[in-house]
């Protein structure tokens, strides 16, 4: 294992410290575990909390700030945070307007967030939740009943965050978050595995000629493994699966070409070149494109494509102001 | 070589196409080579042009937009663009206020930009230039007489771009660009090489235990090679060299922790954690911190630290609005 770290036991702590020190005007870390909150609490606004295992940086703490999240909770690498820090996060950000939990569909995350939500409700905090399950690759997986929640989560943060910032009620914010979930689909692939620091070994192995198609954001197996093909053919394969899952015809979409952590931007742009051509050819109008590292898997090399079917409300909320370390609009 | 591409001969073209298709409101590609310009030309404003070899994405085309560059010219990977496309770029963006060329100090870049500048001057365009040479690692290098120009270039784009946007004259924009150059120092390291697509082989080799210290952004040798050490010790080593080169005592600084392309954000945040501690301990006040992939080397794994000594003018210009694909403020 070759990493620029100090100690496998300090990775999560030092990473969160380093993030908060980079953006002290916007971010503050709670004393109880790796919970990052906005420095300025906005009274009367629905508060948004998300999180999950570490290793997906900039998700989720990089999306804490104006127009997106109020708190993010980071567990150990690829491990769900326990209910306690989630509960502390909820208490810290809760307002009279209530709290929305945005949970990626992984068994541990769902269980621990729900437990934390129940603890907060016993304190009289109004807590609701949505569960993101945008990955079309596999139905059930290593860590999931049902579809996995992956890069599409960032669209949920952005759009629900903008709705909350406008003063919408908890029901309204939950409804628009659910609308994003209902309209976003993602699929990914990888050519190089990642290594959880505490394990010291790659989570899987690929030969120099192989790629894993439909891979999860923890390196979980996807649909199949095959010989690496040209970028355009990979894009065709992923888009076929996404477009077969939801009817995008005649809709405007937001596109996210998301890098897995070690993928050079050069390759992500090459991927987007063909994504754009294919969608244009199919008459699907692209309203906005995001290309970059939004939901990573440590130093995995690969990418995912997310397509969000838009309506006027989601378009306006996607364009609304956001000022977070990792997402500005 | 394992890459998500279609054809080694199409990498630069498809990458630039993919970038421009992602941001069509902001970017336009000229027909003559890989020259990217702003869609809206601002008359009366000093126009800024930069560029160099491809492989440093998002540099430089990702910095084209409001408050930064007016044009970026991309050569083949790690190869200077020829004078012709630079000249075409200058002609496209030139206004009565003149054009500033921001050149990284590499022999080929300096020669070709200067030739293009002379061609444009023969057309009556007022062209001036600055040469960025922020890398403290080595004095002369494989491709350079004098110091290399590396990640500090992004500060020059940002601050000179803001000055131009405010309506300053060509002399004033050149002066503030030179002030940034005089006050910024950078040093980097790597644990994993990168592969130029057309060559198909890594530019250098490192064992599982080795790192290259003081490496250039094309993988050129640095000061030395040694066993990989904990992140904090690497930071100490790089900061020692930077702080010995310029007197930062009592000044406010902007910090850039720049990833080389395949370095996970997790590691960059861990690096920043110690950079912040060391500077704070030395009484050097941090005004702003940037952590991310700003000037990469394809899929090299490693990072550089840049420190910019600030005054009130540079602080205001650093904070001024910027709206480009890769840098928003």
**How are strands sequenced across the largest beta sheet of chain A?**
1-2-4-3-5-6
Instruction: Quote the beta fraction of chain A.
Output: 15-25%
| Main sheet: strands, sense, barrel of chain A | 6 strands, mixed
Care to count the β-strands of chain A? 12
Distance between the termini of chain A: 37 Å
* Average of per-residue pLDDT values of chain A: 97
Largest interface: pair, residues per side? A-B, 57 and 57 residues
The computed structural class of chain A is alpha/beta
Helix content of chain A: 25-40%
Quaternary status of these chains?
homodimer
Give Rg of chain A in angstroms. Answer: 19 Å
Order of helices and strands of chain A: HEEEEHEHEHHEEEHEHEEH
Which shape of chain A, going by the Cα principal axes? globular
Low-confidence stretches of chain A: none
Q: Give the count of helical stretches of chain A.
A: 8
């Amino acid at each position: 294992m070759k990493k620029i770290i100090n100690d496998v036991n300090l990775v999560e702590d030092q990473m969160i410290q380093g993030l908060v020190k980079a953006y002290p005007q916007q971010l503050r870390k709670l004393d109880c575990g790796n919970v990052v909150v906005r420095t300025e609490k906005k009274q009367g606004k629905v508060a948004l909390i998300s999180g999950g295992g570490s290793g997906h940086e900039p998700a989720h703490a990089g999306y804490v700030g104006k127009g997106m999240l109020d708190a993010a909770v980071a567990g150990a690498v690829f491990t769900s945070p326990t209910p306690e820090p989630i509960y502390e996060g909820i208490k810290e950000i809760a307002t009279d307007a209530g709290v929305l939990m945005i949970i990626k569909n992984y068994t541990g995350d769902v269980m621990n967030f729900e437990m934390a939500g129940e603890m907060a409700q016993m304190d009289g905090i109004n807590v609701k939740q949505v569960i993101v399950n945008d990955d079309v690759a596999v139905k059930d997986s290593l860590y999931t009943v049902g579809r996995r929640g992956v890069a599409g989560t960032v669209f949920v943060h952005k759009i629900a965050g903008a709705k909350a910032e406008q003063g919408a009620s908890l029901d309204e914010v939950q409804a628009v978050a659910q609308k994003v979930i209902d309209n976003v689909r993602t699929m990914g692939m990888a050519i190089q595995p990642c290594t959880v620091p505490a394990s010291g070994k790659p989570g899987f192995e690929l030969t120099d000629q192989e790629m894993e198609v439909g891979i999860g954001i923890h390196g979980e197996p996807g649909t199949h493994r095959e010989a690496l093909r040209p970028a355009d053919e990979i894009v065709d394969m992923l888009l076929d699966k996404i477009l077969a899952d939801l009817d995008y015809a005649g809709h405007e979409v937001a596109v996210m070409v998301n890098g897995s952590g070690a993928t050079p931007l050069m390759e992500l742009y090459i991927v987007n070149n063909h994504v754009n051509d294919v969608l244009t050819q199919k008459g699907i109008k692209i309203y906005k494109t995001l290309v970059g590292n939004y939901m990573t898997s440590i130093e995995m090399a690969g990418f995912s494509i997310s397509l969000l079917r838009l309506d006027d409300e989601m378009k306006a909320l996607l364009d609304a102001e956001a000022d977070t370390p990792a997402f500005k609009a």
